[in-house]
Structures are given as structure tokens and as C-alpha cells.
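Justification of computing resources. Each target in the renewal requires a structure prediction run like the one illustrated here; the chain below, 194 residues long, is used simply to show the kind of job we budget for.
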Amino acid sequence: MASAQLRVAVVCSSNQNRSMEAHYLLSQKGFAVRSFGTGSCVRLPGPAPDKPNLYDYSTTYDAIYQDLLRKDPELYARNGVLRMLRRNRAIKLRPEQFASCREPFDLILTCEERVYDQVVRELTAREQETLQLVHVVNVDIQDNYREARLGAVLLCELCQCVSLLDDMDSDLAELLLEFEEHSGQPFLHTACFY
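Resulting C-alpha cells:
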């Protein structure tokens, strides 16, 4: 399966850091990729841990960027949020919520176990129409710039290997075991149907 034929989704909580870093890298490598969040709203760090910035998924990355520039440009430059938003707005218009997407994928990659559970719950709650198989795979990635970058590289390596499999449905479990040994990280995997 060529990389362009493998339809990939990357999902984190707010479609800001981890999923967008992986989206960027996978698109650079020629993959058909989309990214999503599972939260009820987009959550970004604020001036204090109990004062996050919350946005609706309909808010564009540029509007979020402009809002944070108005609020405290030094804080959001220092913590890297403005840099992250500049990257995001170069990739797509706005964050997207996974629950609103009906596009089929071959592989859905999640960046934390809670998000994995939400994606699997969403897919199993939908009425199955085509019975097309989709593999949902999780690897926990800490939500900071450095770990998002390292996680994106790992997810890209995984996708490159998956694209070389003769039969993803039969061979993915073995490949994931190899990746667990190589990376030292556990992978969760389940199959769902559209």
C-alpha cells in the first residue's frame, strides 16, 4: 500500500500540538492525512493552570493566534503557543472535532489513552454502514513541543512501515510488537468498522 493510498487520521485532545505536529510531518512525507481533537472545545494554556483559553472548534487558528496576541504576546511567545499556532494555520484553517468527521480512514493514530478510548467509543457508537475495517492505534505522547516532535517522528515511521505491509489487517499486530520493542513504548490497538 503506497503512502498516498493509506488514509490516516491523527487525533489528540484539542487538535493543536501532538496531532498537528504529526499531521505536518506525515503530509511532508506524502501521506493522505487529517487531524482532529476529541475534546468538547479547544483548550490552550492560559496565564495560570486553572485559567485555560477555551475556543469553539469553529474558531480558526488565525483567530486564536490574534486573540492570544491581544491578551499577552510575551507569555504566548515564551510558552511556544504562538509558534505552534503559526505552524497550525499553515497546515489547515481550523481545528476539527473527530466526532463530526464521517470520512473513512485505514488507520487512526491517537496520542493518549483517554483520546484512544474516546475515538473507539465514537466509532462503535456509530451505525455500521460499509463494514470497512479501520485500525485504531494509540501511543502515549506527552503534550509538549519536544515530545510532540519525537512522537510525530515515531508515528511517521510507523505509517511508513504500515504502507509497506502486504496485508495490513493481518500484519499490523506483529508490526506494532516490533515498534514496542524498538521504541520502548506500549501501543494499544483495536479494530473498528464503518
